[in-house]
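cron nightly-structures :: item 1 of 1
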Amino acid sequence: MRIDNFFAELKRRNVYKVAVAYAIVGWLLVQVATQVFPFLEIPNWIVRLVIVLVAAGFPVALVIAWAFELTPEGIKRTEDVDPTASARQPRKYTWIFVVILGAALSAGLFFIGRFTARNTAGAAGTELPAKSIAVLPFDNLSRDPDDAFFAEGVQDEILTRLAKVADLKVIARTSTQRFKSAPENLPDIAKQLGALNILEGSVQKVNDQVRVNVQLINALTNAHLWAEIYDRKLTDIFAVESDIAKTIADTLQAKLTGSEKQMMAAQPTTDTTAYELYHKGRSLWEKRSGDNIPKAISFYEQAIARDPNYALAYAGLADAYILLPYYTATAQRDASGKAKEAALKALRLDPNLAEAHAAVGKVLNFGEIDLTGSIREFERAIELKPNYATAHHWLGAGPLVDLGRFDDAIAHGKRAIELDPLSPIMNADLGLTLYFARHYDDAVVQLRKPLVLDPTFAYALYNLGMVLQSKGDLHGAIAQYEKAKQFSDDPHISALSGAAKALAGDKNAALQTLTDLDKINQHREVLAYSRALLHLSLNNKDEALRWLEQSFADRDGSNIGAIKVDPLLDPLRGEPRFEALVQKVVVPKTQ
């Protein structure tokens, strides 16, 4: 068949018409699938199936058009139709109207979809900023389960680099860890985390080679904004993490300063084993438990042994020692000295390390009672790493509360939760800040949030009891204290419960608790603040004041600041000895 005859035959057999009509109708189906199905919450795999079927059906339609023809007698094979009879049939233009109608509907759906997508993004913009991102846990595709820590490390390093960009909102890993790496319900997760964009990924480590696969997704539209596969040597992992962070920032059109670019490209260590050990410690530290914090210290020390110049490992070690007394029987004064040594070492190694400044700030707050210096260090940490939730958290719940700067403290507490919305401790500490500010109703609402995340969280339970007690609900407070005791052996909880029972009329409960604390003190530290509350419940003000003064002698920074603001100490206000203690908090040392 000559080529001109072939094209004439295509025309005679209506193949052209079928091709145009199929393209228009197929485009219409694709638009319905992509624009309407998501609104109806139809799974994405069905959308993809429709697109594949439309594409696969196109050549089939052309073959059918070539092989068959529609006649007044019905569908017949083209070879069985008389060409002269077919040519004498009157021309029908119905197919033209079908094409025009289909094209109009397709165009309408296309533009409506784009318009509603923009409106949806705009409406969600107040909740989900365009320049916001959450990095979900990376899949560990390695055969060795221990490499899961390495995959966590890659995720955490990308987050750490992104967190240094002031123009981005970056969700902390403690919140994103609650989700799997490639979930189906991205819009719901985005709303929970307060981030419009989601980074998914996987890591496969084999000997000295590593493959990192990442994809950046708009969680509301499910649009893939960027994807890449990196096959590199293990020693190149830091360059890969830096490149991923830089590409994400560029894709989200975040403005980068020169210093931000430098910090994003910085290499924390040259030793990949030290890198893995640090991230094992970090993962355990984030679990905030008496079993895991000592293990975290061990991993940090191993990382430092591998690389004595690893500033981030020293900062992690300082953070672990800071929290150690609150989750183990370690004495505050013993842990504080080790925390200070590690924090200052980190700062000497890297003066621009935000984590080191935050660790120093915590030491100055809890160990040195230098509130002015503590604020200075936290603010520097936030300047270096604007998305560092822990710095906002510790600044708000620490020196700002101690000085009675409640508006600033609440603002930083809320900012910490914006960056780490599913953190039980940050939600609980904002509730405690509201309690100190005497916003009792707001404090009750806030303290119930971490209990939704973790009903066994003793810290939130006993802080809720303190709020209820200050509202005059002693029975409700005692119930919360007793519930907290089921999940923690912290002596301070027993002191709170005993004091509340004494105020409710059971003086023996407080006396028995004092006796119990004497026994406990033989093998673990009992805070002077706990004894002060018990003596105050027995109306023994002189003894209560003596133990509060002992708090200063013990350098118990976690409770010294509360002396100024804690409503439970209201019966002492106006006493000269008490006001002298308050003055020590109001006028902190400056150096």
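cron nightly-structures :: done
Residues 114-126 have pLDDT under 50 and may be disordered.
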